[in-house]
Amino acid sequence: MKIKIINANILRMVQDEGVITGDLAISGEDIAFIGKVPDDFVADKTIDGSNTLVIPGLINAHTHTPMSILRNFANDLELMDWLTTAIFPAEDRMDEECGYYGALLSMIELIRSGCTAFEEQYMFVDSIAKAVFESGMRANIARGLVGDGEDEGSLQRLQENIDLYHKWHKKGEGRIHVDFGPHAPYTCQDGILKKVIEAAESLPDSGIHIHLCETQTEVKGSIEQYGMTPIERMEKLGLFEKKRVVAAHGVHLTDRDIAIIKKYDVNIVHNPSSNLKLASGFAPVAKLMSEGINVALGTDGSSSNNNVNMIEELHIAGILAKAVAQDAKALPAYEIIKMATINGAKALGIEEQTGSLEIGKKADIAIIDMSGAHWYPQTDLIAAVAYSMQGNDVRDVICNGKLLMEDRKLLTISEKDVIDKIQTLSKKVLGQI
């Protein structure tokens, strides 16, 4: 299908370029022209971009989509208490149907907030992959892994991750990628981590997605048990050496940790809302980025956020980073947007495909309606994206050249059916029936 977006403002996210005006043409899955479109390009569909801003589809680099079924459950608890007393028991009551509909519920939110891609780590991964396939979104999916690598459970979970790769990797017109998901250093002993490293190294294009240094308790426990921080332990095990690593959180980091992260090009994913709600602390985002470390943006799951609205996350990340650095100049607006676009694409290993609007890249696009009062006066549109834009400003979303939402109407997911199903499933999971 050929699509032409006309009379738009366009934020390409290329080499600090500002906003340009003009048209954008899509041919099949790819961006064909930007700015000026040849007269002989005949579109099957023309979209009026008047008073809109066309941006790259946002990328949520760390989330657990089925956890939407646990939204607004187990609030006002610190991480370990939240996990052990509430979340883990509720997850024991979840099944593949919960995984499928929970993932779709999150994807409704993601699409509505201009998101076209995400990095997933959870259970029920086959159901999540099915939901991604049907939704038209782009995703890296990793099976959450825990244990010692010797017990039957941990070996079975690892095999599920390997099977997922062989079944789903690069399926859905190449939209689906499979990574490996060791949950965290405090839930994974050396045995399973070594097996993960071996498995990931044997499968091309796979990466590793892990939670690292989220709380002071985690870091303190690692030092007490292993005599080193979680980052130092992962380096010793060789986790960072040969594969793309997506490290969620990175809140409590020593200078040596930061040097290790920089040495191995580890991708850090900042999850400000989750970190704030669970009182985990404040990631040193500005410091990391000043060291040249790739920092992407994530929402975490709906049970600790309590939404997956990437536009809200943009705003919080930007103002929080300035407060933490005690420097109003830290993390300028353009750098904030990079976290949710090209930096996210780098974390997922798909920067050659998406994350910026360039000819030949995949057409992953969000069209933002600028008619709301909060967009006026229209002076600095880059600042507006970082600080003023709201989730309901997203009008149209395109992924891989296919419209997922048009004029705020979802085209690939039945929102009513998903909501009705989730309401029933949640009662079972939360022990209400």
Query: How many DSSP-defined strands?
Result: 17
CATH superfamily of the largest domain: Metal-dependent hydrolases
Which CATH first-tier class of the largest domain would you pick?
Alpha Beta
Number of helices: 15
CATH topology of the largest domain: TIM Barrel
What is the radius of gyration? 21 Å
Q: Which regions are unreliable across 5 or more consecutive residues at pLDDT < 50?
A: none
CATH architecture verdict of the largest domain:
Alpha-Beta Barrel
Beta-strand content bin: 15-25%
Largest sheet: 9 strands, mixed
Shape: globular
Describe the model.
The chain is of the alpha/beta class and 433 residues long. It is 38% helix and 23% strand. The protein contains 15 helices and 17 strands. It has helices spanning 79-91, 96-112, 125-135, 152-168, 190-202, 216-226, 230-237, 255-263, 272-277, 285-290, 310-325, 333-339, 342-348, 381-387, 415-429; strands at 2-11, 19-27, 30-35, 45-48, 52-56, 58-63, 115-122, 138-145, 176-182, 208-212, 245-249, 267-270, 295-297, 365-369, 394-399, 402-406, 409-410. The strands form 3 sheets. Strands 1, 2, 3, 4, 5, 14, 15, 16 and 17 form a 9-stranded mixed β-sheet that branches. The chain has a 4-stranded parallel β-sheet with strand order 6-7-8-9. It has a 4-stranded parallel β-sheet with strand order 10-11-12-13. A hairpin with a 7-residue loop joins strand 1 and strand 2.
